[in-house]
Amino acid sequence: MLIQILKSKIHRVTVTQANLDYIGSITIDEDLMDAANIIANEQVSVVNNNNGERLTTYVIPGRRGSGDICLNGAAARKVQPGDIVIIMSYATMDFEEAKSFRPTIVFPDTKTNRLVD
């Protein structure tokens, strides 16, 4: 049996931009992507802590070290700059494998969206 399990999570980052006039997706600083084990074009769920909105989109890399978190396209209607979001990706794996799997979770600084040592 295959199940969906949390693979990666960027916990509590601050939205820096909301760009309605874009094709779609979420732009994430490449440093955060690397730390969370998330790749370009990967599907992610985004949860907005400020208003409870949830959405699914895909990732495009942002400028490394910038702290950029930008919701693009229709997703821009679900967030405002300054909102705190959680970004999660999932993997499909065998039930037995999933029992011992540990997701990658990062806790950036919410003021700068940069990794904390």
Notes on the structure:
- This protein has about 120 residues and is mainly beta.
- It has one domain: Barwin-like endoglucanases (Beta Barrel).
- About 10% of the residues lie in helices and about 45% in strands.
- The chain has two helices and eight strands; from the N terminus they run βββαββββαβ.
- An eight-stranded mixed beta sheet has the order 2-6-3-5-4-7-1-8.
- It starts with a strand and ends in an 11-residue tail after the last strand.
Topology at a glance:
Layout: E1 2-14, E2 17-19, E3 25-29, H1 30-36, E4 43-48, E5 54-62, E6 69-72, E7 84-94, H2 95-100, E8 104-106
Parallel strand pairs: 1-8, 2-6, 3-5
Antiparallel strand pairs: 1-7, 3-6, 4-5, 4-7
CATH architecture: Beta Barrel
Shape: globular
Structural class: mainly beta
Q: From N to C, what is the helix and strand string? A: EEEHEEEEHE
- Helical proportion, percent range: 10-25%
What distinguishing features does this structure have?
mainly beta, 11% helix, 117 residues, eight-stranded mixed sheet, 2 helices, Barwin-like endoglucanases
Give a quick summary of the entry.
This protein has 117 residues and is mainly beta. The chain has 2 helices and 8 strands, in the order E-E-E-H-E-E-E-E-H-E.
